[in-house]
Amino acid sequence: MKRIRWYADRLGAMSPGEAAHRARLAVRDRWFVPAWERDEPAAAFARLFHGGDARQALASPHARHWLRLPASGAGFEPALEEASAIAAGRWRIFGHDVGIDDPPRWSANPVTEAEWPDTPSRAIDYHGAGGAGGPKFAWEVGRLTPLPSLALASRLGGDPAHAARAARWLADFTARAPLGQGIHHATGIEMAVRVLTASATLALLEPGQVVAPDAVLGLIAQQARWCRDHLSLGSSANNHLLAELAAMVVTGSLWPGLDGHVRLRHEGLTRLENELLRQIHPDGTSAEQAFGYVPFIWELSLLALHAAECAGEPVRPEVWQRLTRSLEFMRTVRLPGGRWPQVGDEDDGRLLLAWDGPSRLDLVGNALAARVGEDSLDAGATGYATLLLDATGRAPRAAADGVHRFPNGGWTVWRDRGLLVTFDHGPLGLGSLAAHGHADALSVTVWNGADGIAVDPGTFAYQEDERARARCRSTPVHSTVHFGGRSQSVPLGPFLWGRRATVATSGEFEACTWASGERHERSVRVTDRVVTIEDRVRGADAHIVFALAPGASARFEGAIAHVASGSSLASFRSEGLEAWRIEPAEHAPRFAQRVPALRLTARLRADRAVTRIEIAER
Fold it and tell me: Quick check: 595 and 586 in contact, CB under 8 A?
């Protein structure tokens, strides 16, 4: 019954046109499956590539020029370390140390060691935890992100065993996970990411090192075509669609032996350009309202747009301009060490140079900065720029102090001598699903250098833990106001919202009207390192919340709450609140990790409260 209700809610998020489109796809996939989709990968190569010589196809000059072999290993030491760890049977996934077989058990969750069934992909329900503990961990293995690192390590360190392992694993995955079989072909984004990582692996290997090149190229082509025919349109059009379009562009750019490659590239690029202009607002903010996905979107964009340019297809200047504005927005909210306030969802998505190490914001952002001729974000993370552009970029620059307003996305950001304050007065998220948005309207984050004062609690799980997923997205865990422990918008599933709150400007305040009718208005001012927050409410049982960073502590002095975090001390002084109290909470420093934290909260006495946060060094 629960699953039936989800399908009904999901259908309700679709327009009539989208529902009709999905119905046509269902008929196509049941009764009119094209021959190339039914083929085994090697047979698909024979059908889809002209010339019949896979090694000649691998020698494509576009693929050879897509990635640049670094002149030295400087800055790429983690690739050698990761390759050595993999040779010893060790790997890291979402920050967890796990064992990895040679070749891996592709359908297994490397943490629980449980396996997804080897059945047709369309028969697998991946929406819940299932017997394998959720699909994300198995999918991460199947994204093949270690393979480009192995190939790169071989080229830099001279050890042919790393290249041989990359080639052997790529061929083994292709043989064990043909199109339409198993967990790895259950959703388009997984196929799309794999097209990019597999293509990068081939670009970094010598053609003679590749094992079963016809099957490998055949599966790449099948997955890119499947993405073309099953694009995440309508309500699903978020970063998944960007990934699918990127796969089309890269496949059509790098492999000119593929029949119809020019059309595949051109269609993918045209759609990708339009989607980037839709999913990144003119002020540079992300329409998904999920800061953690921005480096992933940059990476998809850079790999695809650069591939198109290598194939002689120009990219519209306004697309690079929009990406430049995105870079400047993230520069504005960047924290020391390349961190950022954990607004909305994040799942550690990455493609190349995927080892744990430099901030993905800095690593990919520096490559984007080098491509568009802007200042870097950080002086050290130059590997991606070198690999993609053979460039190190300009010197780094921090965002200027002052008030930065982003009206399209609904953000105001203050920077003041190491102090960073963000105020979210934007919508829930992108499209009718708002899949990666949280019910956090009018929330604030306050950082003093690297010390979190009031933070976002992060994203611990997707399908792996339904209750934790619901909790991390809910209003009461965020630094805003809630009424009776409820959320502003109505959740209908892990990536689905029902009736939504709306946000609009009301004089000097931003006003959030809840789906259930309550109203919360908030104004924020930052002056001389003092954050003043005024709240006005209409509704019963209103509570103000400030989520504290892990390791922060609090003590009370009358009506004042003193919060110590790192080397910072913040004093919370209030008017119109009952006594402050501390509640146990949790924080997800990254996807799939959870640590204890605290929450500072108080009940409003009436319909107005003022909180002043005074920040000093301890």
Answer: yes
- Which structure tokens are listed for 208? 């003679």
Total length of the chain? 618
DSSP 350-404: --SS-SS-S-HHHHHHHHHHHHHT--BS-SS--HHHHHHHS---SPB-PPPSEEE
Is the distance from CB of 611 to CB of 483 less than 8 angstroms? no
Four-point Cα dihedral 276, 65, 163, 352, nearest 10: -20
Q: At what angle do helices 77-87 and 160-176 cross, to 10 degrees?
A: 60
With contact defined as beta carbons under 8 Å apart, do 291 and 344 qualify?
yes
Degrees (nearest 5) of the Cα angle 155, 161, 162? Answer: 55
Spatial contact of 421 and 414, defined as CB atoms under 8 Å apart:
yes
Q: What is the Cα 369 distance to its own chain's centre?
A: 19
> Which residue(s) pair with 181 in the sheet?
120
d(CA 605, CA 243): 49
Does the pLDDT of residue 51 top 80, yes or no? yes
Indicate if the pLDDT at residue 160 is higher than 90.
yes
Query: Would you tell me how many other CB atoms lie within 10 Å of the CB of residue 502?
Result: 14
Count other Cβ atoms within 10 Å, centred on residue 600: 25
Which residues have CB under 8 Å from 179's CB, separation 6+?
37, 41, 44, 185, 219, 222, 223, 226
Return the bridge partners of 394, or none.
none
Please tell me the distance from the alpha carbon of residue 154 to that of residue 87, in angstroms, as a whole number.
12
Q: 8 pLDDT band (50/70/90 cuts)?
A: confident
DSSP 307: H
β-strand 542-547 against 481-483: which pairing, if any? Answer: antiparallel
Q: What CA–CA distance (Å, rounded) separates 577 from 606?
A: 8
- 246 and 224 in contact (C-beta within 8 Å)? no
Q: Report the Cα 296 to chain-centroid distance in Å.
A: 5
**Contact partners, residue 312, CB within 8 Å, separation at least 6:** none
Q: Are strands 96-99 and 491-493 parallel, antiparallel or unpaired?
A: unpaired
Beta strand residue intervals within 68-124, DSSP E: 90-93, 96-99
Q: What is the DSSP letter of 590?
A: S
pLDDT digits (tens, 9 = 90+) for 391-413: 889 999 999 999 999 999 999 99
Q: What is the DSSP string of 130-190?
A: TTTT-SHHHHHHHTTTHHHHHHHHHHHH--HHHHHHHHHHHHHHHHHS-TTBSGGGSSHHH
> Among positive and negative, which fits the CA dihedral 377, 381, 382, 388?
negative
> Residue 131: which pLDDT band, with cuts at 50, 70 and 90?
low
Rounded to an integer, what distance in angstroms lies between the CA atom of residue 486 and that of residue 499?
Answer: 13
The pair of three-digit structure tokens given for residue 523, joined into one six-digit string: 């104004």
**DSSP secondary-structure letter at 206?**
-
- Region of residue 410 (left: phi > 0; alpha: psi -120 to 50; beta: else): left
At residue 10 the predicted structure's pLDDT band, cuts being 50, 70 and 90, is confident
Contacts of residue 536, Cβ cutoff 8 Å, sequence gap at least 6: 509, 520, 521, 522, 607, 608
Amino acid identity for residue 224 in this structure: A
**Mean pLDDT value across residues 449-465:** 93
Tracing tokens 């990406």 back to the chain, one arrives at 323
The whole-angstrom separation of Cα 322 and Cα 277 is 7
Angstrom distance (rounded) from CA 59 to CA 55: 6
Q: Coil, strand or helix: which one is 610?
A: strand
- With the C-alpha atoms ordered 135, 138, 141, 144, is the resulting torsion angle positive or negative? negative
Other C-beta atoms closer than 10 Å to the C-beta of 517 total 9
Angle ∠(494,500,504) on CA atoms, nearest 5: 135
